[in-house]
Amino acid sequence: MIHRFLLLLLMFLPFFSGAAETEQYVLDDGDRISIKVYGEEDLSMDILLSTRGRFDYPYLGRLEAAGKSVGQLQRIIEQGLRGDYLIDPKVTVNVIQFRKFYVNGEVNQPGGYDYQPGLTIGKAIAIAGGFTDRASRKKIQKTEAKNGRTQKNVGLSQTVGPGDIIVVDQSFF
């Protein structure tokens, strides 16, 4: 019986860790989020964050989501609605569509792709169709969206963030 419980726990562990990772995800322009308020259809909506990471929300006016985690935004909405509008609001905020990351250079399908929590350089290249025959497996650079810093010769296990740009150089041998 204990073995079955441990097996079930191990099967569902990735889902729980993914939820925690998404709650810590920092929002910015280009993210599409879903706000649900239990029992209040008029306050539940899907929103594409504007170019400044802001949106208008009923009763609360313009809210700044950029730079806040999903959990922080959820608490801001709950606190804003509590008291004057609702006694005990139950709010959930989820990311429906993450902003894009970009893969260029010697990959089969260069372009922008929706970010996924836990993404690595290797997974990003696989999403972009894999390496071309001329691709260098070692000359890969990553430009981070959050600070504009470019790293050269990054490994395939390095993490990728939303908005990051990955460039796979050509191999000469």
TrEMBL record:
Alphabetically ordered keywords of this record: Signal
Classification via InterPro entries: Poly_export, Poly_export_N, Soluble_ligand-bd
Boundaries of every Polysaccharide export protein N-terminal domain copy: 20-95
Signal among keywords: yes
Residues in Soluble ligand binding domain copies: 100-141
Pfam families: Poly_export, SLBB
Signal peptide segment: 1-19
Record's keyword annotation contains Cell inner membrane: no
Coiled-coil ranges per UniProt: none
Gene Ontology MF, one: polysaccharide transmembrane transporter activity
Name of the protein: Capsular biosynthesis protein
Native organism: Enterovibrio norvegicus FF-454
